[in-house]
Write a structure and sequence with these properties.
Helix content of chain B: 25-40%
Order of helices and strands of chain A: HHHEHEHEHEHHEHHEHEHEH
CATH superfamily of chain A: Aldolase class I
Number of helices of chain B: 15
Low-confidence stretches of chain B: none
Strand content of chain A: 5-15%
Shape of chain A: globular
CATH architecture of chain A: Alpha-Beta Barrel
Helix content of chain A: 40-55%
Number of strands of chain A: 8
Distance between the termini of chain B: 65 Å
CATH architecture of the largest domain in chain B: 3-Layer(aba) Sandwich
Largest sheet of chain B: 7 strands, mixed
Shape of chain B: globular
Oligomer: heterodimer
Radius of gyration of chain B: 22 Å
Largest interface: A-B, 27 and 25 residues
Distance between the termini of chain A: 49 Å
Number of domains of chain A: 1
Strand content of chain B: 15-25%
Number of helices of chain A: 13
CATH superfamily of the largest domain in chain B: Aldehyde Dehydrogenase, Chain A, domain 1
Amino acid sequence: MVTTAGALTDGSLSSIKGFLKTLSPVDQVGADARAAMLATRSIKTASKKWAIDMAISMIDLTTLEGADTDGKVKAICNKAIRPDPTDPTVPHVGAICVYNDMVTVARKHLDESGGQDIPVAAVSTAFPSGRASLEVKERDTKDAIANGATEIDMVIDRGAFLSGDLEKVFSEIVYIKSLCADKAHLKVILETGELVTYDNVRKASFLAMAAGADFIKTSTGKVAPAATAPVVLVMLEAVRDFYQMTGVRIGVKPAGGIRTTKDAIKQLVLVKETAGDEWLNPGLFRIGASALLNDLLMQRQKLTSGHYGGANYVTLD
Amino acid sequence: MTFEYSSAPESRAIVTIDPVYKLFIGGKFVAPKAGKTFTTINPATEEVLAKIAYAEKSDVDKAVKAAQEGLKVWSKMAPSERGKYLYRIARIMQERAREFAVLETMDNGKPIRETRDVDIPLAAAHFFYHAGWADKLEHAGVGNNPKPYGVVGQIIPWNFPLLMLAWKIAPALATGNTVVLKPAETTPLTALLFAQVCQQAELPAGVVNIVTGDGATGAAIVNHPGISKIAFTGSTDVGKLIARSVAGTGKGLTLELGGKGANIVFEDAPLDETVEGIINGIFFNQGHVCCAGSRLLIQENIQDELLEKLKSRMSQIRLGDPLDKNTDIGAINSREQLEKITELALSGDAEGAERFSAACTIPAKGFWYPPTFFTGVTQAHRIAREEIFGPVLSVISFRTPQEAIEKANNTPFGLSAGVWTDKGSRILWTAKHLRAGVIWANTFNKFDPASPFGGYKESGWGREGGRHGLAAYLKGAK
């Protein structure tokens, strides 16, 4: 039976609790075993080439440092547009992901350098901890959108989630979503490393989806563990089940700890064999990463040329 | 374009298959007296792999005599020295694991992912585990002065050829017995490679003897007066024959026979992991598993939801070339077994059960059966009672825990069962009331050398593995 996302809960604590109770639990040992089995898939030749290009186009190329400067942000924008300057067949990345105050620089530079179709994502709502008043979170989000961010990566209030104040978590997402409206896509960061259990990951995923998330995202990248394979598996199962309930496909974004081509391909295998082929596009799956891009490029060069050039044959940024 | 996995076959180059194999008797490869042979094929391609010596009664007699000679050395050896040989065998099996895995996949038809990740590592683990027991038998809780039987006759099936060999040979050797082992007719190659490992480990001559052949060869072992104990894994029908043959002879006997395991899913089960457990329970090794979860008992109020998930998951199963590293389900081991599966599944149709099969492309050559389940199955259906030994699952609904137990136990078998629930107390209650030798909670088909394995009722006598398994190879063990 298909129902609308809004009908799943009215946002009151009792209603949210009632809705989350209908979800089946997750067995940790079983989820770990399934993820480990899928990690044994052997992706070679043509399928590897396809996967590398798909992974490149799914990257949210990210810099989230206190030391970020205009120059650094411009540099990753260039990299996003032309990941491999020697090979124009390499696709551009999915998006640029920066802090609030770098949105203007990133948007302007992308627009001036031929990256008009690359969106800028801004981390928001007092990223990474989320420990601020709703007013601050509101201002953070509004600013980013006004400066040209078309994707907002908000964090949930993990303290509220763990203490049982699910109403607060839910209403914050609903509110930030209302600010995004039709101007920005909303990615909701669960920070799974702080939620710890897979049951919590599954519940938080549904909470975020019912509240209006367009994407659910594993982590800020500031907490370890981040996008582990079983956590991504559980979230992919959640979006698949949510689609069964509502007919709406929600995206998934693992972020943090995905550094090698092997890691990225494992993610795509998880997507294919859990949510399905429909999710294998940048509209429904993104990978938050920085170092990953160069490893993908090196592997791509190896597949194309037959030999491995190494780090000096890809651009640093 | 979508994400299709390119073929990723494991190389066959690591394996050398001889055109003809002899019998392994007294530490040497010797030709059978009558010079008869039979062939073993790759069930995925029907390609003939090798000619195998056919052991007749006189060859078995020779093997038993060699084992008696071997016993003189082996039983006098310090137990710690016996342990060293077992450790050495275990290490060589690990070193040659890839070779064993590829050969097993070619001879048996099971996917390389399973031979590589399950069969071979577990076989080595059995030798490591029992190596440790060799000099500690006095502390195994089986009595003060445990004594080996002497020469043990062992007959193993084709579903886990090397693993079943390890289950048989490792405890027998650790406890000071010597063995005459007959691998299954369709899967002799890894046992013969194991014979080479025995040579490589410089195991004293006659401690392990391997005779290849068919049921008549097995009967010659069972009826040989020089053998003190029989260990058999295989069908319940043959097990009954063996039990009759050895009755009154004073021979020890352990039997590991058929099963019709109930996999019980309660309403609060973790559904996604349960689906994996169902898949693993019935489609692991093409369902050629005596402890398979071949009856799926689902609480009626979650049946539709669970079966939808199962169907969708089954559409992801990759059937095909067993040597491809991405293959989930390989070939049925023989034409004969394929016919048996086909016949029983057709009885399901005829008796009014509803069939669902995953849409797999079946290769042109070889023996294959698509992953299948039947709904609308009742206790009265043949597919609910008889062991199919293939990738065919019978789905039965229940409404209360009591009803689940009654249905699960309503079978002549009693080898395995599974329980799926988030509630710890329900796991314990269910396990207490199930009459099955192995019960898995929120998992299925997990094996460990330290864990005793065996059945109730027509599923067998005695236990293999763990301390209980040691006792089965020691005379007068308590």
